[in-house]
Amino acid sequence: MIHVKTGLDRLLADPFHYLKGKRLGLVANHTSVAADGRYSWLHFQEHADVELTTLLAPEHGLYGVAQDMEAVNQALEPATGLTTHSLYGKDAQSLKPDAALLAGLDTVVFDIQDIGSRYYTFIYTMAFCMEACKEAGVRMLVCDRPNPINGRQVEGNRVGDDCRSFVGEYPILNRHGMTAGELACLFNEQFGIGCDLGVIHMEGWQRDMWYDQTGLTWIAPSPNMPTLSTATVYPGMCLLEATQLSEGRGTTQPFEQCGAPELDAHKLASLLNKKNLPGVQFRPQYFKPGFQKHAGRICAGVFLHVTNRQAFKPLITGIAVLRATSQWFPDVFAWRTQAYEFVRDIPAIDLLYGNAELRERLLSADLSLLDIEQSWEPDTQDFLPLRHDYLMY
Fold first, then answer.
1. Which of 99, 141, 161, 364 has the maximum number of C-beta atoms within 10 A of its C-beta?
2. 3-class SS letters over the chain
């Protein structure tokens, strides 16, 4: 098996080339692990010619213990004695580092494992840090890591200007097929951040690789992203966060299963299997979430078995689940009405999908799943050449 060398490992192999004599800030979480299994902040602290002064952590915190949309406070990192400053607090202003945090720094290093979906917030933490670095005159260095669901397949539409949020700050596709380092360059040049940016490339990664082909150890990037199988379905099943259906949070297999107490699991599985969606089979499923939606209640629904991950289309599959449940179980299906990622005046489904069209037309008799897929084509054709200019592998 090929063993990919991450950007972090390449940086640590020759840190002084980039960081000698520098005062360093580090944006990281528990996925920032070197080939020896040790955290990046321990490595940086041990280098005599590198002064690590500032730790910043994204949603879920440095060690990934907080649940989604749970405010994280600053805390002491026990191994280094450094204060970890949270970039996910109680309001939208907390998402971008304050200028005071960057004062006196020479370089900010970003090293966090992304999962390849537009909704996943770590790439926007990266972008907001890039903005702060631009304003402070500090260099930003991104250590690249694999896109775990491969870097070739793309799917979806772009975010409209009126639906920008922390789950879609820039007009990229739902499944974008890019690495964090590639996205950093795209954000910096195409979307006008304009910071002093460097990217430490990986060695050995190929675009058609899935994470289990890299030789790297999977570390769950967040509490509800436990496996590569979860990441595979997430670009579509994350849409269920915008409903009152359980997306499986509070269980050991989030996003691979979904449902609600009043659903008919066998009927829903049968309806979805008749769609003959590529690369997936639906099994009637019963589960009881330990927390969040329907906590402590038995939910009936479906489990997604991805039978061919190359053929599988996560986004249209997620939309098929939404359509079937809303059409056949209207008394159970409802959209989320609470604030979502600090936004109160735009429905969560519009933020996730990128516009209001899915919500407004989901039940239209004259709109098929194929029609929905074909509606993405203009966005896809606009995005692909833009994306191509920033591919590094």
1. 141
2. CCCCECHHHHHHHCHHHHHCCCEEEEEECCCCECCCCCEHHHHHHHCCCCEEEEEEECCCCCCCCCCCCCCCCCEECCCCCCEEEECCCCCHHHHCCCHHHHCCCCEEEEECCCCCECCCCHHHHHHHHHHHHHHHCCEEEEECCCCCCCCCCCECCCCCHHHCECCECCCCCCECCCCHHHHHHHHHHCCCCCCCEEEECCECCCCCCCHHHCCCCCCCCCCCCCCHHHHHHHHHHHHHHHECCECCCCCCCECCEEEECCCCHHHHHHHHHCCCCCCEEEEEEEECCCCCCCCCCCEEEEEEEECCCCCCCHHHHHHHHHHHHHHHCCCCCCECCCCECCECCCCHHHHHHCCCHHHHHCCCCCCCHHHHHHHCHHHHHHHHHHHHCCCCC
What's the CA gap between 275 and 259, in Å, rounded?
18
pLDDT at 1 (0 to 100)? 63
* Mean pLDDT, 10 residues at a time, the chain of 393 residues: 91 88 97 97 92 97 96 96 97 96 97 98 98 98 98 98 97 98 98 97 98 98 98 98 98 98 98 98 98 98 98 98 97 96 97 97 91 97 97 98
User: One fold for both 7-213 and 228-362?
Assistant: no
Q: Are 110 and 129 in contact (CB under 8 A)?
A: yes
* Domain locations along the chain: 7-213, 228-362
Q: Please give the CATH topology (third level) of the domain spanning 7-213.
A: Rossmann fold (3.40.50)
pLDDT digits (tens, 9 = 90+) for 125-152: 999 999 999 999 999 999 999 999 999 9
Predicted TM-score (pTM) of this structure: 0.97
